[in-house]
Queue: 3 jobs
Job 1
Amino acid sequence: MKRSFFNLLLWLVISVFLFTIAFPTITLNINGENLRLKGWDPKDVNTNSVFQEFTFLPSLDLQGGQLATLNVDMENVPVEERDNKLKEVREIIYFRLLKTNPGYFEIHSSSDAASQTYQLHLKLPEKINEDFLNLLITPANLTFWVEDSEALAALDENEAVSDPFAGRKASSLTNDDIESVNVISDSRCYFSDPSTPRNFCLMLTFKPESKIDFLDALYASPTGQTPLLMVVDGIPIAVQAMGQFYSGSQPDRELMIYPGITDSWIATSVLGAIVSDRSLSTNVTISNMDTLEPLLGLNTLSNIKISLFAAVIASAVLLYIYFRKRSVSAILALVLFVIYDIALMKVFNLMLDLPLITGFMASLITFMFFIIFLLYRIRTYSKGGLGDEELFEVWEATKKNYRDLTLLVIIGAFVVSLMAPIFVINFYNGFGFGIIIGLFIFYFPLKHILGLFFNRDEKWSIF
Amino acid sequence: MVHFLRNKNVTIIMVFALLLLSVYSIISFKLNLGSSFYDSTALVLELSETRATDNVRAEVNNLVRLSGIEKEGLASFHIYFQNLTLADKAKLDSNLPQLFPSLISSNYFAYQPVREQLIEERIMIVTSILSFMAMVYAVFKIKNVGLTRLEAINFILNELVIVAFMFIVLSGFIALSGQLGLIMDFPYFTMTLSALFIILAFELYYLFKFQVTAREQKKYDLTQIETKITTLYWPEFMFLLSITIVVFFIPWLVVDVNLAISSLQILVSILLSAYSFFVLRAHYNKIELINLPVIKKWKFLHRNW
């Protein structure tokens, strides 16, 4: 554990780099002009980067979001069935939302039988795109139109161009025949020109019991010139992709669909979401969309940031009071832990909510426990500083205990991510990330820091 | 004070009193779950001018105890109540126009939140698996420290009982706080998670100290080890306790009133950890839970662990 200037320089560079990511957004008012300081994002370097931002995702409890109130029309539903119908509609929209993967969201229902008001309340931490929301709440009655050879024979050219239904008839396939829908990127997904496939298409898989109906529809086009047309609520919205060929002897249950909507992941996934489940049997409309204040209060997040910062400073002061000059390595390790952990959580775009923050604090405490063990061991080992091997032995013993704990936490992560409620998962995310970062600091930077300050042969030795 | 608390009779009385109170509290009061867990009544207030959420919360709370409040836009509030009676409704209806002169409308709705499926069962499964893993970890941490298998089993059982005691007392405190009117929603249970974590963190601390101290002893004597840990490491323990209070408890006191009250669970867990370190183990670790002569005759239990 001798001093290595190269290693120290390397970790200094890494730490500065991670600090530029972890740096919080600060707005300064200088001479009446607002100056915004913030950490860098990949989009600052390359606007086409796959990962656009190193940032925490907002949460409803600390940053608020948007609330959309949806009215559910129950006029044609018998009074005694309305509560169940409301739950059914809520469930369908919930699953549709889940499939579009909007991050965290909540959907709740409320009703007032006297005023015949039945509503759904959708809460999202980020801005809701009204167009997509309107698409998400369509009834989505799905039909597939196939070639009608008799009608096709009697069709004139103008009609064929102007009317997409001309020469076609509805098949027996509906929403109930679909097993699953996935958004895919596939070069076979084109309509007429193989050189211009879409970026995002849909792959529909029909239920095994619907396979015969699917094959009937697939082979209903004897000329092969009129592909299957997917119609949602009477509007033709997608056609069968022309690049998908069937062997004829063993066609499967999958159908690649070329949507006629914006070629983006979100638009295609919204379409996939609405066709992949039951259709809505009642009319749902957007009643109101407005901002939602943070559920834990307007200033809670900034208060937490300030009080946590003060707590870290106070712990550093406590360390100094207790260990005096020996505390320098512990304070350095503490600072590195905070920088590395925040940077990593921002890189992974974790959601900044209360459980994540408490999980982070739990990992910080655990890390400090081990650093304090280490300082105690060093202090009790020798009053006059440690030799190279002695220092290595002390570091190795503490590191081994920390490593075992990290392994336990990593194994625990599998259980938690599979079974635990969402707030426990978020707590564990904050805790797990911190524990792993702590191990990283134990293995690498701390080793060099200890060598610098506690090796009695070093001129920097503080013994 | 510490000497008084470490007195054997005082300890026995205190432990039993705490256990009895906690069990009574758990059975009688249960949990006071908030609107995230149960259907409730939502009152939607629409005002013509903006008001601070805390202000509206305080005004309504003076009339009827609310379980949650959300602000939509600038001047619309969704206020949630558990078990709102007709008398409560009448009280609200007659007082709201005076409290909020800019009131445009107030409507009541039956509110049904979407709840996570099988939440209790999942928590039970996760807790059981993690507890099992923690036990396996503890068993391996005391390997090769000079204990026989029987001593190791007794030590693990003793520690399990101590942790169970702390969990029961913490649960009793949680139930009591519910009875005193604290609404338990996800922020509250996040603090519960933190409190449980602190109990386990100090348990882990004791385990490491046990490992180091037991290795130094030539002959295993739990009372001697316990005395040595308390005598040698009490400054370190107090220092860790101070750090935990500074990092984990004090920050919540200045953030928000509800979070500050919820964080009392953390303080309780810190006090319990200190109590078990300084007092409980001094008496309890002398007890051998498995000391039946029949079991003691088994030779394989006397081999080194």
Job 2
Amino acid sequence: MAITCNEGYHQIAHLVTGVAGGTTFTYVAIGTGTGQTAASTTLATESAASGLARAAATCTVETTTVTSDTMQWYKVWTSGATATITEWGAFNNAVKDAGGMLMYAELSPSAALVSGDTLTITGKCQLKAG
Amino acid sequence: MADQPEKKEPKEQIVGTFIVRDKDGNIKQTGVLK
């Protein structure tokens, strides 16, 4: 289930106010686990398989309801292995299982990859009142 | 006694999409992040 993580709220508050302690979320990772919660700071089982490791995303600001109200992360992985990908997250650190996780989501259905396949993921987080 | 407000179930949110392509660029699979 898609969730915004506790660490995400914390970091966003710091980034918006300029109070020290916020780091931008420009990395994305994929994995083979499920079931993370708002308290999680990592994926359940982050992938370290060939071509499927955490990496910098192409980050943009998009419009869903109000102009520029949506953060977007875009990444294409080229798999060097067979893998079944089930989870995705946005992070503020380049290192596997490190840093804070802004948001977490599961793939539906899971993505079945063999070597040579590409997996393109576009993740979005819309800012809303209420 | 006033009726209790109906409890809303959390809405399942779709927060993204994905595409799997083979080495020739053909689409093998699509799905969503939720």
Job 3
Amino acid sequence: MSPNRREFLAIAGASVFAGYAGFAGAKPRHNGAQKISPVSIIKAKSYTDDLVSRILEGVKQCGLDVRGQRVLLKPNLVEFDPKTCINTDVSVVAAALEAFRSLGAAEVKIGEGPGHRRDTYSIAEMTRYRSEVPKFDALFTDLNRDDVSPIQGFADRGEIYLPNTALRADLIVSLAKMKTHHWAGATLSMKNFFGLVPGSIYGWPKNELHQVGIDLSIVELNRIFRRTFAIVDGIVGMEGNGPIQGTPKQVGVLVMGSDLPAVDATCCRIMGIDPLRVEYLQMAADRALGVTEEAHIEQRGETIRSVRTPFELIDNFKQLRLA
Amino acid sequence: MPRRLKFPPYPAEYRYVKDPTAALRLRQTQNADGGWGYFPGKQSWLEPTFYAAVALQGEPAADRAWTLLKSWQNADGGWRPSAEVQVPTWGTSLCVTLAQSRGEFGEPFQKGVAWLLGSAGIEGPLWRRLIFRTRLLGNPDRNLDLKGWPWKPDTASWVEPTAHAIVALKQASVKASSSRLHERVSIGEAQLLDVRCKDGGWNYGSHAALQVDLVAFPETTGLALIGLQGHPDLGKSLDLAARMARETTSPLARAWLTIALRLHEAQVPLSPVEIASSPETMLAALSIVAEEKTQFFRTGAVT
């Protein structure tokens, strides 16, 4: 687990006190990937808008073809608190289901492995997934308790077990929520893949990922799952002490693309966060999993400037504020 | 392949889930290897197999389940969570508890107890523990010197695996008593009490994150109370558990809360909350356990 800013300062202070003066500062960054990735920003003022049309518009702008593919929609479903907005709104999930079906996908299913609460179906009930997504139970797989297969190579752990439903999908659509995160800075489409890790082995929460390091785990999961698309629910996001205890923030956008680091970098810029200072985004760029620099992202639909809505950041992440 | 079954809705007002078809469904959905999947027709896993074996204890189906579970014990005494997964996990506690209930105190039990005694949460990397110990950042959210049990080795302590380990070791103290066991249970209980939320219940691992209070979850509140049987000063926690049992929409939470309240000899409230049906094996098993087999988890205090 990487230290946050306060912890880093404490470590640095202790090191100086002990006579160690060798800290040379953060290593210089370079972006290994040079491709141009399209990212679509689509306005949607509320969850009662025609979200199917909005998603179809974004998918088209990104040039995604899902005909004949087995698509797994992966929402962000964690725990429920009626006072805030922790989870991907059910309207976005239902609209994505309809949109990908209309685009000719051979199969569209929904899967999630919530990280905090044990009772997945109860969370799906409280968040209205079970009542508002037609035939939800037949479409849904609890990824915490799915059948699994080992995948070799996950950071320094040798292997990781992952759910067969996710491993067998032709395309995983990360239906993430636009939120700040008190350990990672921001949680968007890449961090959403923590929900692909089965609780039946790694627990609730999936502490193994924290022990490996949150940033590295995000990157490793995105290295393993490469056939992906992102739709970030930024209609109402969460600012402040996210991803659970923050405050709802109206932004009014859906952000989409096949390059997840590019989508998340765009979301960060909308949120007033500098993506080049978000550790896991830079690790992803360094490993050529996608692009994060503005020059390498072709913004389609709305401009970032037209929808920019700075999010409140907790003290630990004030340094991420976009200049 | 087990036959697909229809799941009846739970009654609107219920004491727990008086589901008359639960036992039948369990018998009909047992896999050929003797285990149960979390859902009918899926791979066998330790946790649903454990609960189904408890629910059907005394029947041949439970014996077949135990035979399967024994085959998943590693040489080091830890239990793997399924045939496909090689790492031992928290499910070791469940198997130690099941062995005792069957009166089997041989090598699988003894090695399982030893594995649990050697297991502890690591509570973050060394640099984090050192920082907390120096109080450079103020008071930590929890006492990192108190070791509970992790979900799997080399990870931190969490409420649920700690509660299950305490139950297993408290019960084991009858046949495998040692000062080490008593000390370990005592530290585990202290760890659970240390992470109790201000509202009297338990979140999944701490009472606060970055010094912001967390609210209790009903599932972990029920489990922590099962682990803390025999401990005094739980009145506020039991009051909250009763309220949660009345209000929760989670059948899993209601089952564990019901078991906890009964073990603490507290009133289990009727609930007006309707709970949607679910295909989960564990819920079918827990509907029987919470109604008829709460004594399976009875421990009392370790003296």
